[in-house]
Amino acid sequence: DTGVSQNPRHKITKRGQNVTFRCDPISEHNRLYWYRQTLGQGPEFLTYFQNEAQLEKSRLLSDRFSAERPKGSFSTLEIQRTEQGDSAMYLCASIEGFGTEAFFGQGTRLTVV
Amino acid sequence: RKEVEQDPGPFNVPEGATVAFNCTYSNSASQSFFWYRQDCRKEPKLLMSVYSSGNEDGRFTAQLNRASQYISLLIRDSKLSDSATYLCVVPLYGQNFVFGPGTRLSVLP
Hints:
Oligomer: heterodimer
Strand content of chain A: over 45%
Mean pLDDT of chain A: 92
Number of strands of chain B: 11
Shape of chain A: globular
Shape of chain B: globular
Number of helices of chain B: 0
Mean pLDDT of chain B: 90
Distance between the termini of chain A: 31 Å
Number of helices of chain A: 0
Radius of gyration of chain A: 13 Å
Largest sheet of chain A: 7 strands, mixed
Low-confidence stretches of chain A: none
Largest sheet of chain B: 6 strands, mixed
């Protein structure tokens, strides 16, 4: 157990529905990252926060995706109007500071049917 | 050129073999590097950090070549339990952790 928790672990949703995932990072870590991973690929960067500030978003992140980290603690990732191509594992990583290792949660596996 | 590149494999090696993977990166300013191990349908877990020329931990050795901009991971005396995907990670200053696509290793009995 890395100390990073993600909920839910699995989510099945119908196309067009909205979904929200939550990540609780290690409490003293100020950086939080979201990644998406599909089978056979490495994790693909989505966005990251330093404390409550969202510092970077991937160009691949469409307007249907939004992330928040109110108060610099937990973070949520919302996908609106889900599409089948959104089916993937969504990983959250907690990092104490730049250049240090990332600790991952167990991920949320999303299936859009 | 992609920011981080790896040979996806798969590398199929017999138990006891020595196997090496390379990872090339494009940003010459990168100062720290990581190898993560990922088992099927699980989250990545840190295997080794590389901050200077290299690092060694038991059967695992990571080396950094800044001039050629690559890091390598050497696994000696491969075990069946080493079968996994090995991800190279390069933090980009002020930006995100960039993952390579991963190299799949299968150690065969």
